[in-house]
Design goal:
seven-stranded antiparallel β-sheet, single chain, disordered N terminus, globular, mainly beta
Length: 126
């Protein structure tokens, strides 16, 4: 499955259509989708490779607190909730009301052509 065929839970859209900024990036990693999905699903791993993140702290199985460095060294934080997931394929999340920033995103794991690992595609809107 890919972004065109599976949509995260559509209720409570945090970033309205035609507003904000959208970023989409993909990279191929020489690992199987299930391994990369498990790494991402443990959200506390994300600051290991996302330089702007200071920390992600799990609150429960679907909610987490994110802390990042903003402009001029300011700290920006938000609480996020996983709003959709398909094991080994996709995780989608959004920030919750009252957060410093409105952000929604998803990460997709798809076998790369020719058995060359996994294409990891991240889509963020804030």
């Amino acid at each position: 499955m890919c972004p065109e065929h599976v949509q995260p839970h559509p209720t409570n859209v945090v970033v309205p259509t035609n507003t904000g900024f959208k970023i989409e990036r993909a990279v191929t990693i020489l690992q199987p989708p299930e391994l990369l999905y498990a790494f991402w699903r443990n959200l506390e791993n994300l600051p290991r490779f996302m330089r702007h993140l200071e920390s992600v702290t799990l609150i429960d199985d679907t909610r987490s607190l994110w802390v990042t460095r903003g402009p001029a060294g300011a700290t920006v934080e938000w609480e996020a909730e996983i709003i959709g997931e398909h094991p080994d394929q996709m995780i989608a999340w959004k920030s919750l009301e009252g957060s410093d920033v409105a952000i929604a995103g998803s990460v997709w794991f798809r076998p790369a052509p020719g058995g060359r690992g996994t294409e990891v595609r991240v889509i963020l809107k804030y």
